[in-house]
């Protein structure tokens, strides 16, 4: 074994750096010409983070195979070199997106003769799209990932990568998990993890830490009193909200990551923002200002108007139901619990849906919103309707909501996911066993997939079939279930890049 250790030292220091595997130079080894290595070849698309196996075929030239030992030495882009295995069959998990120059060495122990084979292994991410799960175990932030894979013509299987950040990176993500955020470029995505130990951006390709949110401010530190609560990333406008209600923004000039910094002066003065909403092609980030009891917005695009404040007002010529709470003056104490919207074919603007709370009751609002002209500072609301929410007797301040355009509305209460047909029918869609509380839900629908992801406080995560066939009992509702993930605080679909998000997320 001394011979192979000496050889590996030479290999790393000289042979790998100069790609002279067969140069016998001044170091003492001889090639065993009768040994032939096959079935070891370069691979330009080795999956990152998953065990990769190479099974060499060796012709020992009549020698006793028990007289041989093996080593796999890999160099990553001239940054480091290491012996990654001493077994004949390589079983290794590559954890960086990189080119690995790898050498397989076969040593004939009695003679010290060495035979080698050099290959290139390029790792690629297979984590582009799927479900991300943020959970808490022993106060630690745990980020897991579920990938959907086509198993047959009409069959999808789900592959869980539990605690993927720690598995790939080897350290802890942080503590006190709170919420996830989506951040896209045209090529990839980043995942914002808001947590008590400090918000951080995670690469969507390899789940490595990219930057702390604190570093993304002009002074490399948060403004006084700022604690991150929520972030929304538009096509140009990026906004981060603090628990103090202050909103800070930056303008992204080219759609890349970390090319600009957040201002350290609040974007809207004399306001206290409670929550924000954004969807693909909306054109602005929408939010509720609880200080002034109003909806307000900021232009995302086009470039000419980015960051311009939008004031929402009731259209003077539109008929609103008398019960409709004016969007520009919702009254002291009103809370906006949920905001969403959907597009109607052939109509301009968006149809909005809101759950608001007044006193101890919850109300369901619908209205349309459109600009008189692009760039106008006024967003007109018309066709407003409001009714006591059909789930008023079920929901509480911790309930979660999602919707299927204008067709179905979903909400949670305790361990039950309910659905409402937007007319009269309200029924439990799925009751989760054991009495655990649902902490988050999100819907994803594109082409043949219609899913609702559900996270519970007992560490369980479900993907439910939300198709009409499942709703009517023609198919099983549970597509996938994971357990022991820790208290699941947020679930979020990972679209992978801005193109997928723009194409697949609109209802």
UniProtKB/TrEMBL annotation:
InterPro entries: PKD-like (IPR032183)
Highest taxon, organism lineage: Bacteria
PROSITE patterns, alphabetized: PROKAR_LIPOPROTEIN
Full protein name: Uncharacterized protein
Organism: Butyricimonas faecihominis
